[in-house]
Amino acid sequence: MKWNLFLLGKLKIPMLSYTGVKLISITDSEARVEIKLKRRTKNHLNSMYFGALAVGADVAGGIHAFYYAEKMNKKISFAFKGMNAQFFKRAESDCLFVCNDGKKVADAVLLSIETKERINETTKVIAYNKNAEIVAEFEMIVSVKCI
Question: Distances from the Cα of 51 to the Cαs of 47, 54, 55, 137, in angstroms?
Fold first, then answer.
């Protein structure tokens, strides 16, 4: 999956490469993604820019769709239908994005295979700073269709 994320950033979604998003780990239920605080991801307040935080939430909330598609040997059409974010404090260090909703995405992919319809599922992503404090919470509406 790390190689797939690298290729996705190089070939299809340059913002992934630009922010340097890194897949730390992925299991059937959890995805962990990191973005370092550096010149490209900072805002004028020396904290992580909203767009960089959105990229981290995007990858952590959506990588399970690709993970399960590859695991089930299926092709999928994937997008985000919506996002809701709550920011609790400024992200003044590298951030770790954690999504524990892999099973929900798996169920959505299976349902899409069965019904041949686009399925929407809400996943929750939590962003932590280096002190393990919650910086932000995201609700990402993942939309998948097996093709």
Answer: 12, 5, 6, 14
